[in-house]
Specification:
Protein name: Helix-turn-helix domain-containing protein
Family: Belongs to the CdaR family.
CATH superfamily of the largest domain: GAF domain
Pfam families: GAF, GGDEF_2, HTH_30
Radius of gyration: 34 Å
Number of domains: 4
CATH topology of the largest domain: Beta-Lactamase
Largest sheet: 6 strands, mixed
InterPro entries: CdaR-like_regulators, CdaR_GGDEF, GAF, GAF-like_dom_sf, PucR_C-HTH_dom, PucR_C-HTH_sf
CATH architecture of the largest domain: 2-Layer Sandwich
Helix content: 40-55%
Oligomer: single chain
């Protein structure tokens, strides 16, 4: 979902205030139609249909700029543009007259005649938004453009969908009020109860207006959640789409385990098909607590979950007020995401420039704005996302990883940025004072370990591979660190390694894997170890492990023998056999170097060597 512009946000609040200013259903329906047409530029007219389940028909209840004949139309689900939106239960745009003609071709003969009598000309484009209440479609708002120069655009979907959501809440509230009025007429002794209900409804409208004011004045999520706490007197929790607690107010403090239980049960309940809001009972501290769960955003792409913890089940009228809050919170979350995306774009342009190595004036100016010292020491970490359980939440997970990287890496003596670069995260670190390469490498390795531990704790269903470049002096040389970190990831990718960390400093001889072809490296290993492979394959296979142990322990025969549980003399005998088989002398520095290189490369090409028959 894209961000509503400030103008659209003001329009939504205006429409919401108007349709919530009355409790009369007919007045609300007329207000919805008039206000909607007035705030969407391309709309030349429109009709609000309400679904009658007994007749299984969509009945027009209000129109704007149409002749009265339109109110006699009766549409079946799936019939024309309105019926298609009802069936799809999502907002549909018919971009041009061709699409409009195709959709209206499904009209019955009588309805087609009524449509022709009601409108000046066939629309040049149309947009239809379903009114959804508790998982069911109760009606459709249809807008038409009769101006060939004005067409509905994708941004109109956001505003019309938000208006439709407000309409659903207003209609539900009006129906509640209507039912109460009938009860008053039938049972006079309930008059006092109905008066209280009216007072509650007015309070609901006031709550909505207060929330809207908080957004307009930029108070933020914490102020909204605090206001809900002051209004309800209950614990209020706001989780994002990945289940992270992003804002809260406690009446009674909750433990981490209790928060986790509430979150998991809430997410499970919202996964149930057709569920719009949920109510649960949980035993906490030997007391039953009622949990009211309200989704933030549309079902298909939730931004998060609003949860109220109370001693008793909340009243419907209070929940209606909270649903107002959910709309406001969703707009605030969209705004926060837009700010994050804008900052990411700025940071991303700097990283792209540094990757290219073209240090022009624009790049240097951006670096200066971020307080990067042109003569400072720089080190780069690149984080690649390996796999995800929730692929449909890829963007959200990567955004959270960027935020986590900023929290973990940028502290103490470190400054810099963490920014998304396609499906990778680039962390550019700069030191505020001179440090040794060894210290820098050790410190970053510790931070990387902490970063991976945080990911494991979060349980987002993803793993990452991390490459670490070396520290280099001056911003002009930061490209070198970037490419070193990229080569580390290339190394891991080439050999199918995932969920691992490697630094360019640690690559050592393995850098040869990045400089030579796979075929050349296999030939090199076979040239110096091939006879040993053949010998071990035809016998017990003891010589190759013995050689590996000898080299791993820096030619310390005693330690190597202990590591593989044999006597030192046995190891020395095996080493002599290896020299005979390979026709080499391990005491010869040149021959030893070749053997050592082949052994170092072997683990990375072991499977390939097997396929080649070695």
């Amino acid at each position: 979902m894209q961000t509503l512009s400030h103008r659209q946000l003001q329009s939504l609040i205006h429409v919401s205030n108007v349709i919530n200013s009355s409790l009369d259903i007919d007045t609300i329906i007329d207000s919805i139609m008039v206000q909607t047409v007035s705030v969407i530029d391309a709309a030349g007219g429109g009709v609000l249909f309400i679904y009658d389940p007994k007749q299984d028909l969509l009945i027009p209840k209000s129109d704007s700029n149409f002749k009265s004949d339109i109110l006699t139309v009766r549409l079946k689900p799936g019939e024309s543009m309105t019926g298609l939106a009802f069936t799809a239960q999502k907002c549909l745009i018919f971009h041009n007259r061709t699409e409009v003609e195709k959709a209206t071709a499904t009209l019955s003969e009588s309805n087609h005649k009524l449509m022709d009598q009601s409108i000046p000309t066939l629309p040049y484009s149309s947009i239809c938004a379903p009114i959804l209440l508790k998982g069911e479609c109760i009606g459709v708002i249809t807008l038409d453009s009769f101006d060939p120069l004005l067409h509905f655009i994708p941004e109109d979907i956001n505003l019309l969908t938000a208006i439709a959501h407000q309409a659903a809440v207003a209609l539900e509230k009006a129906n509640l009020y209507h039912e109460q009025e009938q009860t008053v007429r039938q049972l006079e002794y309930l008059n006092n109860t109905i008066s209280k209900q009216n007072e509650m409804l007015s309070q609901s409208v006031d709550i909505h207006n207060r929330l809207a004011a908080l957004v307009l004045y930029g108070e933020g999520l914490d102020s909204i959640i605090s206001y809900l706490y002051d209004t309800t007197g209950h614990t209020v929790l706001l989780f994002d789409d990945l289940g992270e607690l992003i804002s809260h107010t406690y009446k009674n403090t909750l433990s981490d385990d209790e928060l986790l239980t509430i979150r998991d049960k809430a997410q499970e309940s919202l996964r149930t098909p057709g569920t719009v809001r949920s109510f649960l009972e949980i035993n906490m501290n030997e007391e039953n607590q009622c949990i009211t769960i309200l989704p933030i955003g549309a079902k298909a792409s939730l931004f998060g979950t609003l949860i109220i913890v109370s001693a008793k089940k909340m009243r419907e009228i209070d929940i209606a007020a909270l649903e107002h809050a959910c709309t406001v919170i969703s707009l605030e979350l969209v705004k926060d995401q837009a700010i994050f995306d804008a900052q990411e774009k700025i940071n991303g342009e700097l990283i792209e420039g540094l990757f290219s190595g073209k240090m022009d004036g624009t790049i240097l100016q951006k670096a200066k704005q971020m307080d990067f010292d042109p003569l400072g020491d720089y080190l780069t970490v690149i984080i690649r996302v390996d796999e995800m359980d929730n692929t449909h939440k890829r963007n959200s997970i990567i955004r959270h990883l960027v935020q986590l990287a900023n929290r973990v890496f940028l502290k103490n003596s470190l400054n810099g940025i963490a920014v998304r670069n396609h499906d990778q995260i680039v962390v550019l670190l700069t030191y505020q004072q001179k440090v040794s390469p060894t210290y820098a490498h050790h410190q970053v390795k510790e931070l990387v370990a902490k970063f991976r531990q945080e990911i494991h704790i979060k349980n987002w269903g993803t793993t990452v591979s991390i490459g670490i470049g070396r520290i280099h002096s001056s911003l002009l040389k930061v490209t070198k660190s970037l490419h070193e970190a990229a080569k580390c990831l290339q190394f891991l990718h080439s050999f199918g390694r995932k969920n691992q960390v490697i630094s360019y400093k640690e690559l050592g001889v393995q850098r040869l894997l990045l400089q030579n072809s796979e075929e050349e490296l296999i030939d090199f290993i076979n040239e110096f170890l091939g006879p040993l492979f053949e010998y071990d394959q035809s016998r017990k296979g003891e010589l190759l492990p013995s050689l590996f142990a000898y080299l791993d322990y820096n030619q310390n025969a005693k330690e190597a023998a202990e590591a593989i549980h044999i006597h030192t003399n046995t190891l020395m005998y095996r080493l002599k056999r290896i020299e005979d088989i390979l026709s080499t002398d391990l005491s010869d520095s040149q021959q030893f170097l070749n053997i050592h290189l082949a052994v170092s490369l072997y683990p990375f090409l072991k499977e390939k060597l097997t396929q080649h028959g070695s």
